[in-house]
Design brief:
The protein is of the alpha/beta class. The chain has helices at residues 9-18, 25-30, 50-63, 84-97, 114-123, 132-140, 157-162, 166-175, 191-200, 231-242, 254-266, 280-291, 325-332, 353-363, 375-387, 390-393, 398-410, 413-426, 472-483, 509-519, 566-576, and strands at residues 40-43, 77-80, 105-108, 127-130, 151-154, 181-186, 205-208, 219-226, 246-250, 271-274, 297-300, 313-318, 342-349, 367-369, 458-462, 490-495, 500-504, 528-530. The chain has 21 helices and 18 strands.
């Protein structure tokens, strides 16, 4: 199929040389006759070929009737991208697209040497690609001449607004000539994007390249539920099972990237990392290693979720669940780009199954379940690839025939084949052991929680109880995680003093026991054990042992004497417990010790204290004489606590 005639000849030749036979929906829509010379507001899914699309769209505006550019001077086009990697990638795409037209491009991105960029701008360029902050800096310093601009392209505009570049974008667009063309590309068109388009575009034509149902047709989504302790093992086995030429593994944090890349490197994988803490040169080298084949796996944070386009990237693994549906779509969009097929594997711990389902439902994706590849599957795949290796089907060359004859003369064919097999297996990473058949058939299925399901169930005990402040609300998640089951597999939970008993459904008891035996409880000092003897199976909380009582032990109670020495009272506390005793726990004093109430006595003079000296008034005043008053101490002079400040 030939390319449309509306594409300028130099660009058509470049596309043909690149192997383009058909155009993507966004590329076809943007070169229609009605789009010529107009401002465009385009919504297209990531990986749909937007860079080539707006390159073809602005070509008539930049070249006019000519087939090639003249001498480079002030830039004719400005492309703004949200990240360094995306800006440099756009520059590479435009380089080959405009190679036949003789265009000169230059970049202006953060993290690179600004002096080198200024010298490139002084020499002149037809197209400038940059990030908002660095472009604004060059405009402010007078290094970037905006007077000759004919077109401005905003790529991933929604991402730029999310990253807080609105003020920089408004500054750049205000500095551009008013008669320019403005092309705005965004995955979605929320209200901030619509307001930006209304302010800086003139009668923009709205283009929606793909529908929500078609945007992920080239990506096969798979959900893999695994025990939390086996997440890294599942990642390793997934990499070995698919054996993709290039793979991106997404982690949520920089520390997660470091840990996972170290684990994969130790297992023999060729790994590079990509995160925000790396310098621009380190990030560029990492991507270049993926492009030239020195590395096959890139472990990255969400800094690589937008715009990164790697050749032969057939597999994307979500090692950590994304925070929302948009992040999931942008991560997954690194594969299945421009008509290529790709696979996306979402690895979710069992206890976060509902979170994964909610994100997938919001993203409106058709997802199939996938069990973690087992070691046996991968080893069988290894042997099949060895048997069908291309090297075995090649004829023996003349310069090899003599040495082959020597090998056969010295060793048997079986010995040579065995040596070859051992060499091939040793060169491949060994698979990990994972729990098999640990997930339901469909992502939305839930086991019914009925009493009949627990008939014939098995009772277990966990070594935490009331003394450890155990409660079902935190015991249940621990049991589910340790046994690799959902909460519907756990029946009654009965909490006692030092341990708790719980019931596991009959069809899950064996797998629960195996998982606990392999992984433990997951908590330090806590054990989960099966209650083997039938007599140990509790029918009620009291059947597992007597409950503590606040009543005192049998025997004659000791009378509580407040005047008793503290040591005796402490001894009583040790004997009868620290719980306060009620009134019924004390015996009444003997009858002979009960005293009659004392009659009221007339008030008399206060007794004289001999130890402290004679008081000022120790007797009763004579009749008619005034009662002497107690002398008050003289007032002391008050001194200020600190000197007043002058």
């Amino acid at each position: 199929m030939s390319l449309p005639a509306t594409i300028l000849p130099p660009l058509a030749r470049a596309l043909t040389a690149k192997g383009y036979e058909t155009l993507t929906p966004v590329q076809s829509a943007i070169i229609e006759d009605e789009t010529a010379g107009r401002d465009l507001l385009v919504s297209a899914q990531t990986g749909s070929g937007k860079t080539v699309a707006f390159g073809m769209a602005i070509a008539p505006t930049l070249l006019g009737e000519d087939d090639s550019f003249g001498a480079a001077g002030a830039p004719l086009a400005l492309v703004i991208a949200p990240t360094r990697e995306l800006a440099l990638q756009v520059q590479r795409e435009l380089d080959w697209l405009y190679a036949e037209a003789g265009a000169r491009t230059a970049s202006a991105v953060g993290g690179m040497d600004a002096r080198t960029e200024r010298r490139a701008l002084e020499r002149g360029a037809h197209i400038i690609v940059g990030t908002p902050g660095r472009l604004r800096d060059h405009i402010t310093r007078g290094a970037l001449d905006m007077s000759g601009l004919r077109a401005v392209v905003l790529d991933e505009a929604d991402e730029m607004l999310d990253l807080g570049f609105r003020e920089d974008l408004e500054f750049i667009l205000d500095a551009a000539p008013e008669d320019r063309r403005t092309l705005l590309f965004s995955a979605t068109v929320p209200r901030p994007i619509a307001q930006l388009a209304k302010t800086f575009q003139r009668d923009a034509l709205r283009i929606s390249a793909t529908s929500g149902e078609e945007q992920h047709a080239d990506i096969d989504y798979k959900l893999m539920l695994v025990p939390a302790a086996e997440r890294e093992n599942a990642i390793i086995n997934t990499l070995l099972f698919f054996d993709s030429a290039n793979t991106i593994v997404f982690a949520s944090t920089r520390e997660g990237v470091k840990h996972l890349s170290a684990r994969l490197h130790n297992r023999g994988f060729d790994v590079v990392t990509l995160s925000g803490e790396l310098t621009q040169s380190e990030r560029t080298n990492a991507l270049q290693s993926m492009r030239d084949g020195r590395a096959r796996i890139c472990v990255a944070t969400d800094v690589a979720a937008r715009g990164i386009d790697l050749p032969n990237l057939d597999l994307v693994i979500h090692a950590d669940l994304p925070t929302n549906a948009d992040t999931l779509l942008h991560r997954s969009g690194r594969t299945g780009r421009a008509g290529r097929k790709g696979t996306c594997v979402i690895i979710a711990p069992m206890h976060r199954r509902n979170v994964a389902q909610r994100i997938l439902k919001t993203a409106k994706l058709d997802v199939s379940m996938m069990a973690p590849p087992s070691a046996a599957q991968i080893e069988a795949q290894y042997r099949e690839s060895i048997l069908t290796a291309e090297a075995l089907s090649r004829p023996v060359a003349e310069d090899e025939s003599e040495f082959v004859a020597q090998l056969l003369a010295r060793h048997s064919a079986e010995a040579i084949a065995a040596a070859y097999l051992r060499q091939q297996l040793a060169s491949r990473p060994a698979p990990e052991d994972v729990t098999e058949n640990a997930m339901p058939d469909k992502p939305g299925d839930k086991d019914p929680r009925t009493r009949e399901r627990f008939e014939g169930g098995t009772w277990f005990k966990v070594t935490v109880g009331r003394k450890h402040k155990a409660e079902p609300r935190w015991v249940l998640p621990m049991l589910c995680k340790a046994g690799n089951v959902t909460k519907t597999a756990i029946g009654s939970i009965r909490i006692f003093d030092t341990e708790s008993h719980f019931e596991v459904a009959a069809d899950k008891a064996d797998s629960f026991a195996r998982s606990v035996e392999k992984n433990g409880s997951g908590e330090r000092g806590v054990q989960i054990l099966a209650i083997d003897a039938p007599g140990e199976r509790p029918t009620s909380p009291r059947a597992a042992g007597p409950r503590p009582s606040n009543k005192r032990p049998p025997g004659p109670p000791a009378r509580y004497d407040p005047a008793a020495p503290r040591s005796e009272r402490s001894d009583r506390k040790q004997r009868y417990g620290s719980t306060a005793l009620g009134a019924d726990d004390f015996e009444a004093p003997p009858a002979e010790e009960v005293r009659a109430p004392r009659p009221d006595k007339p008030r008399g003079p206060k007794p004289t204290t001999k130890d402290k000296g004679k008081p000022k008034w120790a007797g009763k005043a004579a009749e008619g004489e005034p009662r002497p008053k107690k002398a008050k101490p003289a007032k002391k002079d008050h001194k200020p606590k600190r000197k007043p400040q002058v």
